[in-house]
Amino acid sequence: MLGFLLARAGVKVEVLEKHADFLRDFRGDTIHPSTLEFMYELGLLDEFLKLPHEKALHLYGQVGDETFTVADFTHLPTHAKFLAVMPQWDFLDFLARQGARYPNFSLRQRTEATDLIAEGGHIVGVRATAPSGLLEIRADLVVGTDGRHSLVREKAGLQVEDLGAPMDVLWFRISRRASDPAETMGRFAKGGMFVLINRGEHWQCGLVIAKGSIERIHAAGLPAFRADVAERCPFTADRIGEIRDWDDVKLLTVAVNRLPLWHKPGVLCIGDAAHTMSPVGGVGVNLAVQDAVATANILATPLREGRVTEADLARIQKRRTFATRIIQRFQIAVQNRVVVSVLGSTGPLKAPFALRLLGSCPFLQRLPARMLGLGVRRERVAPEIANARPPAD
């Protein structure tokens, strides 16, 4: 997203992707209203929504046999008043195609950054491996968008503050039938949480487990795992055999952390490289996209004129830190007060008063929808970027 926006603003950009494509399963596949609004501001929303997706107008929570509406997106001040569930590879392919319309945008696939190039205490580029061999790419600025295990932040010597996470998530898929419910929801029951995301022809399922318990689950065996899933989601019991082996179950090791300092001369980290988010609320991808928009807005002119300073990089961190901290505090509160309690439960659960109040008051459902759908600090694409068009246009 950042590469596309900067290219649109007239900046020469090289995007490195170590894989040959974007086909990775069980990534963040929820496109929130904030990101959809960026597509509108860029004049791309109609084209974007032609891609296969499912719409979630509301989010639901189920405790025992009771289901509650948690968030209502239909009142948001956006042009797309819903959450779009879309394979992330489709989203990334779309952005890559849009970027390719600009001659100053280059996407190098099968190219993996391996080190930073430093001269005189300043980062001036990256070393990488590509099909053609080793190469060096010089740049006025290196931006690390390489996720929770960021090599850029490691090589830059940026220290990580770990905030802790008591859980991990097992992701897998089960086919969806017309008789199934349509809602995307979280189910809370004795000893665990189960997430269902409607992907049209199948369910993307997530079983929340206590951190470090994966070996115990493996030791209990796949039949026990299938039985646990069927108990938590009874309508899947007749197709639970679709989980054929452990290769069909992917472990997401949850982490919540952030960098006290996002930058050094010549290098900047954003997204998960700067602040790894919990899956609570599914906001990680959209927070990263907001980082990208803020970064493009602040740096487009300095980069185009070749005068980026560390003060410019500090402006990005200052703008995005407050939103990051608030969302992480919310996620940690949910982890400590809800997730830990549910994972440790041994008997039937009762819906807390706050959830019952939320479910019975439609107006209150707008509050979590706004936090999850728009974030704490809204970003908007700067007019000079929003109004730019590729040369062919």
Q: What can be said about the biggest beta sheet?
A: 7 strands, mixed
Count of helical stretches: 12
Mean pLDDT: 93
Shape: globular
Task: Describe it.
The chain is α+β, with helices and mostly antiparallel strands and 393 residues long. It folds into two domains: 2-56 and 81-162 and 255-342 and 381-386, FAD/NAD(P)-binding domain (3-Layer(bba) Sandwich), CATH 3.50.50; 167-210 and 212-252. It is 34% helix and 25% strand. It has twelve helices and 20 strands. It has helices spanning 2-8, 33-41, 45-48, 88-99, 151-156, 214-220, 222-232, 284-304, 310-343, 353-360, 366-374, 383-386, and strands spanning 13-17, 30-31, 54-56, 58-63, 66-72, 83-85, 105-109, 112-119, 122-130, 133-138, 142-144, 161-162, 167-175, 185-189, 192-198, 202-210, 250-252, 257-258, 263-264, 267-269. The strands form six sheets. The protein has a seven-stranded mixed beta sheet with strand order 5-4-14-15-16-13-17. α1 runs parallel beside α4 (88-99) and α8 (284-304) packs antiparallel against α9 (310-343). The longest helix is centred in the last third of the chain and has 34 residues, at 310-343. The two termini are 20 Å apart. The mean pLDDT is 93.
